[in-house]
Amino acid sequence: MHGAFVRDGAWWWSRVAEPLAARGITSHAVDLPSCGAAAPLGGFADDVATVRSAIAAIDGPVVVVAHSYGGMAVTEAAAGMPNVAHLLYVSAIVPDLQSVLTSGWVPADGAVATTVDFREDGTIGENARHFVDRLLSASDEDTKQAAMTRLTRQNGAVYAQETTAAAWREIESTYVVCRADGDVTVEIQRTQAARTKAVIELDTNHFPHVERPDLIADIVVDLVDRVPTA
């Protein structure tokens, strides 16, 4: 599950999908309806419904991977889904009946990047160049250019919507802390990670699935291998 301000989830996860496929693991990327070029965009309930539908469509046990804002939708959507075997949060929000704004994800002083802009249509976004230079700092220019074409607006209302379920309370979960994250401090990530069962720390920026897909693929393979077979 992708995070905020992006579209084309398949591209963002493609570098992980390839090694997974080589090891016989099928993956599915989901596009969240709250992200798009312009209003009207879907709300948080639409994000949750989309994730639940994607999970339900998969036959057999599922490891659900969430990045950044994607943790909000996954935490609610996966609750009560019998085929979800594990949750993997990658520098992601792990809410406990909270909104993005009350989950501890936003710095205590309420500061946001100065390049985030708020429009009258209720959407928010960020300057593309600043976004990739800050969060894809280990990537080459071709990757940054490709990423910039896949940045988009998001419905700002989703940040105030509280979750009504916490899947991590009933499903085994793992958190990947990105120690070189240019967006979310290590302290905030570790606070979120405290709600999960296991924590892995990587020396990567905010998008390890783009810049170090080998590490994320290895983690997913390990989790899949641990899923009990009938």
Automatic annotation (TrEMBL):
InterPro entries: AB_hydrolase_1 (IPR000073), AB_hydrolase_fold (IPR029058), Sec-Metab_Biosynth_Hydrolase (IPR052897). GO terms for molecular function: catalytic activity. Residues 2-218 form the AB hydrolase-1 domain. It comes from the Bacteria. Pfam families: Abhydrolase_6. PANTHER family: AB HYDROLASE-1 DOMAIN-CONTAINING PROTEIN-RELATED, ESTERASE_LIPASE_THIOESTERASE DOMAIN-CONTAINING PROTEIN. This is Pimeloyl-ACP methyl ester carboxylesterase.
